[in-house]
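Exercise 7. Given the encoded structure of a 206-residue chain, write a plausible sequence.
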């Protein structure tokens, strides 16, 4: 079923072999309660409690492809949720820092991921301001919909670093890629629209 899902995601336009291979390695059904695990290999988001979702595999692949992760890259993920996206980044050889706003989800995932053998650095708090104490990062990935691009996130990127963030209103958000070319120069590209849960916190929807 996982192989079939990888094919489906490739058909939808994901080209990175590394990303597709990572998707093919992570047992997504472990992230689901047993009674719901028949849904694990559908290309769909799914509720994980606390009003949050595990992102759709295509969306995870799309954001990860834009990030262009290389082995050893230091990546900040904002919105740990179930931890699924973090495992994809770990499979790509990244050093992962991940921050979650909701205490219950943080407490669940900080135990669950290591039980599967995945080692990330977990934080609980408002990621809309980034995680300045561990900056700078090669990449920052926001997995919740933001009203605007928080300036703090751009500041926490290394030169050459990339920020992938969905920006829009509560109905749909456009995927934005910001590439920090030099200390003062950025490029910005906009891609398809997606639908995320809202980024909360000071630089989010409050
Ligand atoms: N990456 C997750 C995964 O693989 O399961 C999907 C996460 S879900 C679509 C978005 C997550 O962002 C939710 O868990 C939500 O609680 C979290 N979130 C929202 N605002 C946040 C903030 N300001 N800081 C950190 N996490 C936040």
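Solution.
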């Amino acid at each position: 079923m996982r192989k079939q899902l990888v094919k489906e995601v490739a058909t939808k336009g994901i080209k990175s072999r590394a990303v597709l291979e990572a998707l093919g390695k992570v047992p997504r059904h472990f992230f689901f309660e047993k009674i719901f695990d028949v849904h694990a290999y559908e290309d769909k988001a799914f509720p994980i409690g606390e009003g949050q979702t595990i992102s759709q595999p295509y969306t995870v692949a799309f954001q990860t492809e834009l990030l262009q992760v290389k082995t050893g890259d230091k990546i900040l993920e904002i919105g740990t949720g179930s931890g699924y996206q973090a495992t994809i980044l770990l499979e790509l050889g990244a050093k992962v820092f991940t921050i979650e706003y909701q205490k219950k989800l943080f407490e669940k995932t900080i135990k669950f991921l290591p039980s599967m053998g995945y080692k990330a650095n977990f934080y609980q708090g408002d990621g809309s301001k980034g995680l300045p104490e561990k900056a700078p990062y090669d990449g920052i990935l926001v997995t919740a919909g933001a009203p605007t691009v928080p300036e703090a996130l751009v500041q926490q990127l290394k030169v050459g670093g990339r920020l992938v963030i969905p920006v829009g209103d509560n109905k749909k958000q456009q995927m934005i890629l910001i590439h920090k070319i030099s200390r003062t120069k950025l490029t910005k590209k906009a891609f398809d629209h997606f639908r995320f849960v809202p980024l909360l916190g000071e630089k989010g929807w409050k």
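Remark. The pocket of S-adenosylmethionine is lined by residues 52-55, 78-79, 81-82, 84-85, 99-102, 105, 126-128, 143-144, 196-197, 199-201, 204 (CB under 6 Å). Students should compare their own answers with the one above.
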